[in-house]
Inverse folding.
């Protein structure tokens, strides 16, 4: 099936993970398989799309060595020990052209980090993650991606009985600011240094041989976070739970729990049912990025002089945001004219079809409509939505319009 696993994460000191097999699902069933992503990863879609047992964790693919990662995090400002409570990393898949991706099963049962949780995930939240993460990718925003969602045929007990599901998450890595919080709180200086060296090797190899590499590392992370948060602001994405455990070192959007896109412009927008103070409101995201980076700077203190990283973050954010906003508001003149010339376009009409801004985003009312149908076993609405989201710059009569009644009471939930 062309899996090509390596396991460099498990070469880190043993405090950073526990070996953990996924739970055996009774009768797994494929719900959605991302053929396009599989092709990009060099995987054999024809075989894999008929192998739900692999994506449920029931059968381990060749070369997999499952583990759960340890991490901590500041949740709404308060430190907590966390870790993969419902996920296992099968390994790092190396694509034929040499790119390295974590392949993680989310919802595959209890782990040593589950605390009081059941280790499970349910179908609709996993489909929601699939839809929104793939939409983010199509919008050109760095993100973890979704390779498959399978039903496990296990009941999941929440407020009512739900259908158990596993999502296969593909990420450049799952190293979080919270992984550094963990190393700082529970590890030795050697553990912290090992994690920093590993993160640099994996994401910023160009600074490996520099003298002050740990300070540079922090600066690089600042740049990635600033670029990411600016992109969120530009499309109206509200992450909803920017705890340090949900901030990836490599600058990908991770954790699609309570996130949602803003319809009506309101800087105070909050969707998450538990964010009563608005800590993670749309307008606060840039400064929370800086707050999280300060936690990383603190964690790195034993090995790095943290210098002006936070100032650098603010400058990078401002530059990225301003450039992005200008591009949203201005016509990319040269580019448009040369495309018009190339395409032998009608001079007048061309200006009425300018494509500078996304026209299709995963609007809450459309995502809810797709999930409601999926809950009844009809996946056609979701497939139609996903097809539109793949081409966000093409106007769609069905998906471009805001909801008719402003849905100011749209609520989202964590840990579903
Ligand atoms: P999140 O809100 O998704 O960022 O999750 C925060 C922490 O709760 C992480 O350590 C998760 O692994 C853990 N967690 C969330 N849901 C469950 C669950 N059903 N069982 C066990 N752990 C969970
Ligand atoms: Mg999380």
């Amino acid at each position: 099936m062309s899996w090509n696993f390596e396991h460099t994460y498990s070469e880190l000191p043993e405090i950073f993970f526990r070996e953990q097999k996924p739970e055996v699902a009774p009768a797994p069933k494929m719900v959605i398989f991302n053929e396009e992503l599989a092709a990009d990863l060099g995987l054999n879609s024809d075989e894999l799309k008929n192998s739900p047992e692999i994506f449920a964790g029931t059968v381990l693919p060749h070369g997999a060595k499952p583990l759960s990662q340890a991490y901590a995090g500041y949740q709404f400002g308060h430190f907590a020990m966390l870790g993969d409570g419902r996920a296992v990393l099968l390994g790092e898949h190396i694509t034929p052209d040499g790119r390295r991706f974590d392949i993680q099963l989310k919802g595959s049962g209890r782990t040593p980090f589950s605390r009081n949780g059941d280790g499970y995930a349910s179908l609709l939240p996993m489909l929601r993650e699939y839809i929104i993460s793939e939409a983010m990718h199509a919008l050109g925003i760095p993100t973890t991606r979704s390779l498959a969602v399978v039903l496990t045929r296990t009941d999941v007990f929440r407020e009512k009985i739900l259908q158990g599901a596993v999502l296969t998450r593909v990420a450049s890595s799952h190293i979080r600011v919270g992984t550094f919080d963990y190393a700082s709180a529970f590890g030795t200086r050697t553990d912290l240094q090992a994690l920093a060296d590993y993160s640099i090797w994996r994401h910023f190899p160009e600074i490996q041989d520099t003298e002050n590499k740990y300070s540079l590392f922090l600066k690089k992370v600042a740049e990635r976070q600033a670029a990411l948060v600016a992109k969120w602001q530009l499309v109206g994405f509200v992450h909803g739970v920017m705890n340090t455990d949900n901030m990836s070192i490599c600058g990908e959007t991770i954790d699609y729990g309570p996130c949602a896109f803003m319809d009506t412009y309101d800087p105070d927008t909050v969707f998450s049912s538990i964010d009563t103070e608005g800590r993670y409101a749309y307008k606060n995201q840039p400064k929370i990025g800086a707050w999280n980076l300060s936690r990383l700077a603190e964690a790195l203190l034993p090995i790095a002089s943290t210098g002006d990283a936070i100032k650098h973050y603010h400058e990078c954010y401002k530059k990225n945001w301003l450039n992005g906003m200008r591009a949203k508001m201005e016509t990319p003149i040269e580019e448009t004219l040369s495309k018009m010339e190339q395409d032998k376009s009608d001079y007048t009409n061309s200006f009425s079809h300018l494509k500078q801004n996304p026209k299709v985003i995963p609007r809450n009312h459309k995502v809810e409509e797709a999930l409601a149908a999926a809950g009844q076993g009809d996946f056609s609405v979701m497939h139609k939505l996903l097809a539109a989201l793949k081409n966000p710059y093409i106007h769609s009569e069905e998906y471009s319009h805001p909801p008719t009644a402003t849905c100011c009471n749209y609520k989202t939930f964590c840990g579903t």
Observations:
- Residues 82-86, 113-114, 117-120, 241, 245-246, 255, 257, 414-415 surround adenosine monophosphate (ligand 1) (CB under 6 Å).
